[in-house]
Amino acid sequence: MLRIQIPLLLICFLSTVLSENCEDNNKELCTSKNDEQQSLKSATSVYDFHALDIYGNDVNLNRYRGHVLIIVNVASNCGLTDTNYKQLVQLYEKYGNSAGLRILAFPSNQFGGQEPGTSQEILNFVQKYNVTFDMFNKVDVNGNNAHPLWKWLTELGGDKGGTIKWNFTKFIVDKEGNVVARFAPNNEPLEMEPILKEYL
C-alpha cells in the first residue's frame, strides 16, 4: 500500500510544481490548445471569445459589450469584394460614431484562395476603401481548424447557423452579444440597414 502511495504523491507534487512553473515562467507556452480555443459548449455569446487582430494583438471580444456588431469574413480578390467593402465602410461611417456600430472583419483564404496575402498586404489593400473598422488576423471559418468564434457561429441553431458558404457572410450581433441575423454573401451590406436600425 505504501509503495503505491509514494509514486502517487510524487506525481501530484510534480504536477503542482510544473503548474506553478507555468504560471511563473511563461503562461503563453504553457496554455493548452483547448484553453486557447475556449469551450464552445460553455459559450453563450460572442463575448466569450478572444481573437488576434490583424496586428497580432489578442483581443477579448468582451470589449465590444454594449455595441451592435457586424461580424464578416472578408477576402481581397473576390467578385463581391468591392461592393461589400464600400458598403461596410458606408455603414460604419454612418453609424460607427453616432450609434456605436462596430464591424469585425476576419480575412479568410478558404474560398477559392481569394485572400492569399499577408496581414500587411491585406492592410495595404483595404486602405483604398478607407477602412477604419476592426480587421482581424486571417482565420479559417469552416472545418476542424476554424477559429472558435466561427465554429460557434456555424453551430448556432435555426437560420443563423450552418456552414459558411463563401466570402462575406455577415452576422448582426445585438448589444448583449447575441446573434440576431445572418446574411448570405450575395446580400449587400446596405440590405442589412433596416435590421441594424432595430438594434442600434
TrEMBL record:
Family the entry assigns: Belongs to the glutathione peroxidase family.
Claim: Signal is one of the keywords in the record: yes
Pfam families, alphabetized: GSHPx
Organism: Vespula maculifrons (Eastern yellow jacket)
Protein origin, superkingdom: Eukaryota
Catalytic residues, chain numbering: C78
Entries under PROSITE patterns matching the protein: GLUTATHIONE_PEROXID_1, GLUTATHIONE_PEROXID_2, GLUTATHIONE_PEROXID_3, THIOREDOXIN_2
Keyword Hydrolase attributed: no
Any GO molecular function: peroxidase activity
UniProt protein name: Glutathione peroxidase
Lineage: Eukaryota, Metazoa, Ecdysozoa, Arthropoda, Hexapoda
Annotated Thioredoxin domain residues: 40-200
